[in-house]
Amino acid sequence: PPPALLLVPDFPDGGEPGAERLRRQRVCLERLGRPAAPTDVRGTVQVLGGPGPKEVTVRYTFNEWLSFVDVPAAPLPPEPPAERYGFTLCVPPSLREGSALHFAIRYRGPQGEFWDNNGGRNYTLRCCGCPGGGPAAAPP
User: Fold this and answer.
1) What span, in angstroms and rounded, lies between the C-alpha atoms of 54 and 102?
2) In a domain, 138, yes or no
3) How many other C-beta atoms lie within 10 A of the C-beta of residue 88?
4) DSSP 79
5) Which Pfam families does the entry mention (predicted)?
6) Number of structural domains in the chain
7) Does residue 134 lie within any of the structural domains?
């Protein structure tokens, strides 16, 4: 069978966002589901919000930003002092080994607009083949 495809993070896994980073950016990627499925990518975001209306979206692309999709993130139970949001990015079946998914997170609230774009590099997931094929071959 052909190899199973996995989306592998191409950025260091910093674990929980640091309090200083969250204070400075107001929005941070908290974590990605592991491993990222070949059909969707799930993750959580922390936001240092305030009162008033707010919007958290994840902007992502499969074609090096020639086009992109904005997906709303949904509120989750908060973990003070941060609010938490969950997101799911749909991966097209046409994604092939070697291609990439890039994303960044946007928070808009009464205080303004803030981005977490991995320090200007964006977050990148690389599509990699997993030897042996089939979903059972995915790493633990």
Assistant:
1) 23
2) no
3) 15
4) E
5) CBM_21 (PF03370)
6) 1
7) no
Task: Name the residue among 21, 31, 14, 124 with its Cα closest to residue 76.
Answer: 31
Domain residues for 15?
5-127
Q: Where is 23: in which H helix or E strand? A: helix 19-25
Strands 55-61 and 69-72, bridge-based pairing: antiparallel
The label of the residue with tokens 């922390």 reads 46
- Is the bond leading into 17 cis (omega within 30 degrees of zero)? no
What tens-digit pLDDT sequence spans the chain (140 residues)? 455 678 888 887 655 567 888 999 999 999 888 655 567 889 999 999 788 899 999 999 999 999 999 999 999 998 888 999 999 998 887 788 889 999 999 999 998 999 999 989 999 998 887 654 444 333 33
What predicted TM-score, i.e. pTM, was given to this entire model?
0.83
- Can you tell me the distance from the alpha carbon of 42 to that of 31, in angstroms, rounded to the nearest whole number? 9
Do 58 and 111 touch, CB atoms closer than 8 A? no
Is the CB of residue 131 less than 8 Å from the CB of residue 3?
yes
What are the tokens at 116? 């977490």
